Amino acid sequence: MSSPSKIALRIYFQQKRGELRSIPNSMKFPFKRWIHILSSILAYRKICEKPIPVFIIYSPSCLRVMEPIALELQARTIPSKVYIADWLIRSESPIAKELRFTTSRIKLTTWIIKSHKRSPIIFALNSPISGHQWGNTATTWANSLGKRTMCIQHGGIKHSSMKQLSLSPSPEIIAWSEASATILTEKYGRTTPPPHIVSPPCLPKPPPLQQIDHNHILLATCLHTEYGADKASYDQFLHDIFDSLEQSSFTLSICMHPRDKTSPNQYKDVLKHYPILNKRTEIFSSNDNRFYTVLAKSGTLLTRASTAAEEAAALGRKVILYDIESKSVRFEYDFLEAEPNCYLVQGRTELQKALVSNHHESNTEKLATRLGYASNGKNPRNEYARFFSEISMSKEVDS
Fold it and tell me: How many domains does the chain have?
């Protein structure tokens, strides 16, 4: 007859084997033999005795939001773990050299299975829509194991971004502002538990006013979403902008979206038709990691519909949301229309008027506060360090 200890060990091993079998296909490691090795490790290792945040980064957007947080925690020696998907490494996305992370899915699944019940497993993209499926699958699996998952806001408060965030399978959401939290609770019913409110981690401090070049325009949009695969519409969008700038004195920087194709490069292909503007234009791929540096010094932000519009408006820049269609995604930013330096326009005539309109000195503190970008002299990374430090200091041990 088996001893009680052997029976308990067998039950525990079967439980862990069940957890391993539940791993989604998208998260499994390439060699099945590792499952047996990992089963043995899991059967005898102690469960983590205190909560340690686990950051799961699998897209450029995740990296943009979570890298500065993870770096801050590591600099302060606050325990944390960082997983970066190997396909993100292969895409040559810029990753800080000082960031300590793993690309091992074996380690990731071990971290999740062995994590303390209060360890937050953090995603930035995990709603059930195109491009987020991997995060959605991983979150759903972690939830099924009774783990604690969080989704951090990764975009602004335009309607589609907030809807995506509300669809996250993570029970807990980190919102960037009171406005975000209010939309999530009142419009989408995310009340239990209520969202945590922590400022955006990635907006830079504005430079002195004398360093802002009001003759410089930053174009930051995307060429892959709103018009689907209709290349002609994206071409027309770019032709309208470049034609309006060709005979002007404006200089132009283009910061490409991480999902825009670099080969062929649609910006370069259309820009060839405008030789004068071409000489005054710089194009940065997302791998150059220059967006916030260029934004800080630009007088105008030009886009169709992007979180960049909110960030620029909060910094007091002129913001032009332009589209070739009358019923456009730009109207998701209708709340910016009341701002004196924000323009929602359609057609070249309206675009040209907006480009030459005077910049109005205005107090953007109210808008910045609403969007979560008002620092009030505080470093938002300090807020995340405090937030996760309080979690890690918990003394509760899993039963």
Answer: 2
